[in-house]
Amino acid sequence: MILAILVAFYEQVSPDKNIYVTVVAIVVFMFGMMKLSAKTPSKNQDKKDKDV
Predict the structure, then answer these.
(1) Going by C-beta distance under 8 Å and a sequence separation of 6 or more, which residues neighbour residue 35?
(2) Of 7, 15, 31, 33, which is most buried with the most CB atoms under 10 A?
(3) pLDDT reported for residue 27
(4) The pLDDT of residue 4
(5) What local confidence, expressed as pLDDT, does residue 41 receive?
(6) 15 φ/ψ angles, rounded to the nearest 5 degrees
(7) Is the CB of residue 5 less than 8 Å from the CB of residue 27?
(8) Residue 51 CA to chain centroid, in angstroms?
(9) Segment 1-52, tens digit of pLDDT
């Protein structure tokens, strides 16, 4: 994910911007964030367990 961020920022600074590289970097970053957020527990999970 850090590599995707660095690539996206590098493409924005370069004089000949390639939109496809930037889009791919953003998609990779969003996919990584989705996988990371799936691993973190919800704050409301304790409340749901008590209600059951």
Answers:
(1) none
(2) 7
(3) 92
(4) 86
(5) 80
(6) -65, -35
(7) no
(8) 33
(9) 888 888 888 888 888 888 898 888 899 999 999 998 888 887 776 665 565 5
What does the radius of gyration of the chain's CA atoms come to, in whole angstroms? 17
Q: Which residue is listed with tokens 């995707």?
A: 4
**Token pair 């939109």: residue:** 19
pTM: 0.66
Tokens representing residue 48 in the block: 């749901």
Which amino acid is residue 35, in one-letter code?
A: K
2-16 b/e (C-beta count within 10 Å ≥ 16 → b): eebeebbeebeeeee
